[in-house]
């Protein structure tokens, strides 16, 4: 089943076509990577899919329903969750509270119950805290639960964003460079984490520069260049595509690649 | 021990209750009671404003307008329409909630300085209305307020109003603490730190900003009504720009995103001018100096900065 369909999507910022006439499908319960050189439009595409930007043309269908131009909080309610390339952490809250915010959609909304702290709220708060602890444990951050997020190291914050995104119990999780700035050991941990998430049946959409990570875990790869689709397919197909190599290594790199292959 | 200091929610409420209960034992005369009541009234407004400014991170330079409406509601409605005072109070609260809801929707789309100027304009507008509609409000001279009667009893006397103000403050603080530690409060604190992250977590950022605006307006309105009942007289000053600035200063000075810090700020900025009068013409210069020194040396506000110093001291003591 196609989980997300993008049809002829375009957006321009003052004459620069960040995404141009882009179409692709994402299958449910797969790991779908989006790669491309810097400035190819990967993060812009994430912002379009999650509703932070409105496209100038084209459609986005989520679970067969047209969600083009829907605001982010409504897309979140439909089961879409994401992390950010440049950290978007709630720095004045504890690690545990950050994850509890991720559960916002599952929590009771009645403000009167909140102000009076009714017994029903107390019960749901206990459950929320419990679930948030489990998620911190899942991403390996239990030790930081009571710490202010502002005092946590970079690598831990990357995983905290994943825990917060998972707290919403998403059907689709978009990860924007989860391993950026992480050392090889941390990257391996995130690699494992993404595979565990996918095993739970969540569709993972991944933007990542670490090619080793991408080639290892992706079911499907979409290659962008200058906002257009350059290539698409499995890791092996994409790796063998001469256009992809040219985009990444330039024409000279292409020659060297050909020479190396003999 | 450290954990208890870090989570001062319940403990803080108990300390506040004790202070309110025991203060009358040491207040020597009516003047001190008067100052204590004024502190309580300002503190109620500041606890509400802190939800908006300190927790949700949205500025308002117009909250004195809501305070003024609260005060004039209990003055004008009984005098002009013969509505009982307690009902006038409730009508005032409902009107302020509605007004904040209607005005807040468009202006809370603005951010930072733009929001500051828009709320400033709203406050000035309310001030102009109460000043100019003199056939109802008495104009710049103000008007007397009929005594509150509840169940046939006239509520009067400085002692009585001390306990009413204290109870209202305690209730207001309890509501605020509950809210801050609830899903709504987390949503407010989240959108303060990152609006995009809050949005993708499913938080309707615009609605929650509006919610904080309406709640804080109600706090200001209640404070205004109590003030009018207690003093028995209202003037447009309560709705004025300077009063808005005073309330924001109390929040910032005491501690943003610290409910009890806001109360400390309210206490300091209400009491200091009363006691600095012994310095006569230097009174205002000294007040300014105290505020400046506090902000330079206790940047995060009095209570959060002092708490940090104490915690650090305790931590070092523990290690040594």
Produce the secondary structure layout.
The complex is a heterodimer of chains A (262) and B (320).
Chain A: E1 2-13, E2 16-27, E3 31-35, H1 42-49, E4 57-62, E5 65-66, H2 72-77, E6 80-82, H3 95-102, H4 111-116, H5 119-138, H6 154-167, E7 172-176, H7 184-199, E8 203-207, H8 211-217, E9 220-225, E10 228-233, H9 235-240, H10 242-261
Parallel strand pairs in A: 3-8, 3-9, 6-7, 7-8
Antiparallel strand pairs in A: 1-2, 1-4, 4-5, 9-10
Helix pairs in contact in A: 3-5, 3-6, 5-6
Chain B: H1 2-6, H2 9-26, H3 30-55, H4 63-81, H5 85-107, H6 112-132, H7 134-137, E1 143-144, E2 148-150, E3 153-155, H8 158-180, H9 183-193, H10 195-200, H11 205-231, E4 233-234, H12 241-254, H13 259-275, H14 283-297, H15 302-319
Antiparallel strand pairs in B: 1-4, 2-3
CATH topology heading of the largest domain in chain A: Rossmann fold
Instruction: Give the uncertain stretches of chain B in residue-range form.
Output: 1-7
How are the strands of the biggest sheet of chain B laid out side by side? 1-4
Q: Could you report the average pLDDT of chain A, rounded to the nearest whole number?
A: 91
Evaluate the radius of gyration of chain A.
20 Å
The CATH architecture of the largest domain in chain A comes to: 3-Layer(aba) Sandwich
Short description:
The complex is a heterodimer of chains A (262) and B (320). Chain A is of the alpha/beta class and 262 residues long.
Question: How would you describe this protein?
Answer:
The complex is a heterodimer of chains A (262) and B (320). Chain A is α/β, with parallel strands linked by helices and 262 residues long. Chain A has two domains: 1-79 and 173-262, P-loop containing nucleotide triphosphate hydrolases (Rossmann fold); 88-169, P-loop containing nucleotide triphosphate hydrolases (Rossmann fold, 3-Layer(aba) Sandwich). Helix content of chain A is 42%, strand content 24%. Chain A contains ten helices and ten strands. Chain A has helices at 42-49, 72-77, 95-102, 111-116, 119-138, 154-167, 184-199, 211-217, 235-240, 242-261; strands spanning 2-13, 16-27, 31-35, 57-62, 65-66, 80-82, 172-176, 203-207, 220-225, 228-233. Chain A has a six-stranded mixed beta sheet with strand order 6-7-8-3-9-10, sandwiched between helices. Chain A has a four-stranded antiparallel beta sheet with strand order 2-1-4-5, with helices on one face. In chain A, strand 9 (220-225) and strand 10 (228-233) form a beta hairpin. With 320 residues, chain B is mostly helical. Chain B has one domain (2-243). Chain B is built from 15 helices and four strands. Chain B has a two-stranded antiparallel sheet. In chain B, strands 2-3 form a two-stranded antiparallel sheet. In chain B, helix 4 (63-81) crosses helix 11. In chain B, 48% of the residues are buried. The A-B interface holds A 50-52, 71-73, 75-77, 80-82, 84, 88-93, 97, 100-102, 104-105, 107-109, 111, 113-117, 121, 125, 128, 164-165, 167-168 and B 175, 178-179, 181-187, 189-190, 192-194, 196-205, 211, 257.
């Amino acid at each position: 089943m196609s989980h997300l369909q993008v049809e002829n999507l375009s957006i321009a910022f003052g004459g620069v076509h960040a995404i141009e006439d882009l179409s692709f499908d994402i299958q449910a319960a797969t790991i779908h990577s989006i790669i491309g050189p810097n400035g190819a439009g990967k993060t812009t595409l994430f912002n379009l899919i999650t509703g932070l930007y409105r496209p100038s043309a084209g459609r986005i269908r989520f679970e067969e329903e047209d969600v083009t131009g829907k605001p982010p909080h409504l897309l979140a309610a439909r089961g879409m969750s994401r992390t950010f390339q440049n950290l978007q952490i709630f720095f004045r809250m504890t690690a545990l509270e950050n994850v509890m915010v991720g559960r916002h959609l599952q929590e009771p909304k009645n403000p009167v119950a909140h102000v009076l702290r009714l017994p029903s709220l107390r019960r749901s708060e206990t459950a929320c805290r419990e679930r948030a602890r489990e998620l911190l444990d899942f991403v390996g951050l239990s030790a930081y639960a009571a710490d202010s997020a502002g005092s946590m190291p970079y690598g831990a914050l990357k995983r905290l964003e994943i825990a917060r995104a998972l707290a919403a119990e998403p059907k689709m999780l978009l990860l924007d460079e989860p391993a950026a700035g992480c050392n090889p050991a941390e990257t391996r941990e995130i690699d494992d984490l993404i595979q565990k998430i996918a095993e739970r049946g969540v569709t993972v959409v991944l933007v990542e520069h670490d090619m080793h990570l991408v080639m290892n875990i992706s079911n499907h790869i979409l290659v962008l260049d200058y906002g257009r689709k350059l290539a698409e397919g499995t890791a092996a197909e994409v790796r063998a595509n001469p256009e992809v190599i040219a985009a990444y290594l330039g024409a000279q790199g292409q020659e060297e690649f050909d020479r190396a292959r003999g | 021990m450290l954990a208890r200091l870090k989570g001062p929610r319940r403990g803080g409420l108990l300390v506040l209750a004790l202070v309110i209960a025991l203060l009358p034992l040491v207040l020597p005369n009516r003047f001190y009671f008067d100052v204590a009541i004024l502190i309580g009234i300002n503190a109620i407004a500041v606890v509400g404003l802190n939800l908006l400014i300190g927790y949700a991170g949205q500025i308002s330079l117009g909250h004195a307008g809501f305070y003024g409406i609260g005060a004039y509601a209990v003055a004008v409605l009984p005098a002009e329409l013969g509505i009982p005072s307690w009902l006038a109070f409730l009508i005032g609260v409902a009107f302020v909630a509605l007004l904040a809801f209607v005005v807040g929707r468009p202006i809370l789309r603005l951010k930072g300085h733009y929001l500051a100027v828009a709320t400033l304009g709203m406050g000035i507008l309310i001030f102009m209305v109460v000043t100019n509609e003199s056939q109802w409000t008495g104009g710049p001279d103000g008007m007397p307020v009929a005594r509150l009667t509840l169940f046939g009893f006239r509520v009067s006397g400085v002692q009585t109003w001390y306990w009413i103000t204290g109870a209202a403050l305690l209730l207001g603080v309890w509501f605020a603490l509950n809210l801050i530690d609830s899903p709504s409060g987390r949503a407010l604190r989240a959108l303060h730190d990152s609006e995009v992250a809050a949005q993708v977590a499913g938080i309707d950022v615009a609605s929650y900003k509006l919610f904080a605006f309406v709640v804080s307006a109600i706090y200001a309105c209640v404070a205004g009504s109590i003030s009018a009942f207690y003093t028995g007289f209202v003037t447009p000053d309560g709705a004025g720009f300077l009063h808005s600035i005073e309330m924001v200063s109390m929040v910032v000075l005491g501690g943003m995103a610290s409910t009890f810090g806001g109360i400390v700020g309210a206490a300091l900025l209400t009491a200091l001018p009363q006691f600095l009068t012994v310095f006569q013409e230097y009174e205002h210069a000294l007040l300014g100096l105290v505020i400046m020194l506090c902000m330079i040396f206790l940047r995060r506000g009095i209570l959060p900065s002092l708490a940090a110093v104490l915690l650090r001291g305790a931590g070092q003591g523990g290690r040594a």
